[in-house]
Amino acid sequence: RLSLFERLLRRYRNDESVTFMLCRQGRMHHDIALFPNQAFYAGMLTEVPLPHQVAGLPETADSDSGIDRILRSHRMAFIAADAPEDSPSDKVNQIEADMIAVTVKRIHDMEGDNFRPAETVGVIVPYRNQIAAIRSALDGYGIPALRAITIDTVERYQGSQRRYIIYGFTVSKYYQLKFLSDNVFMDSDGSVVDRKLNVAMTRAKEHLLIFGNPRLLVRNHT
Hints:
Layout: H1 4-12, E1 24-25, H2 30-40, E2 46-47, H3 51-54, H4 66-73, E3 76-80, H5 94-111, E4 121-124, H6 128-139, H7 144-147, E5 150-152, H8 154-157, E6 162-168, H9 177-180, E7 184-186, E8 192-194, H10 195-201, E9 204-212, H11 214-217
Parallel strand pairs: 1-2, 3-9, 4-5, 4-6, 6-9
Antiparallel strand pairs: 7-8
Helix pairs in contact: 5-6
């Protein structure tokens, strides 16, 4: 269950001759880093800073599209998605899949010639079934660049980064909350660390959008 790295850390955590924490990060914008820094790193992270980490955004954006207004004026946003009334599988949330697909499409339109599938946007979801649902929704737009973006699970996204990260919780049933939090552990200082959420949030450089059902997610107290 525990990796070699974790076992070494547990044994030598307090030995300053072999253990040192990297505290400067050059990926996340300051606004994105705030929550993971406080929740998972005891406030020890600081920005380098690089230009994209301190760049500002307008407080409001004029647009008829709610998605466009969020993308243009927010670094982080939680977007509420209702649970589907009927689904072929609990591992597929078509409402979220469609919302994520249209968001990716709007990012593509906004970025124009600057859109790069391997750099601009990435999507993280917990289930392979949901990956397929989002792929299918994106295919409906008939845009080749959208077929090339990476949609994957948290585990396979570790080490990657994108300017925009979209994280979809997907879950629509209470029992699924346990799967989302199966990598939550108590650190030596007594703090609770949600490894999956930490990895997902810290992949984002400039924008982080999270989709989920708040009425369900609030029932997970870990």
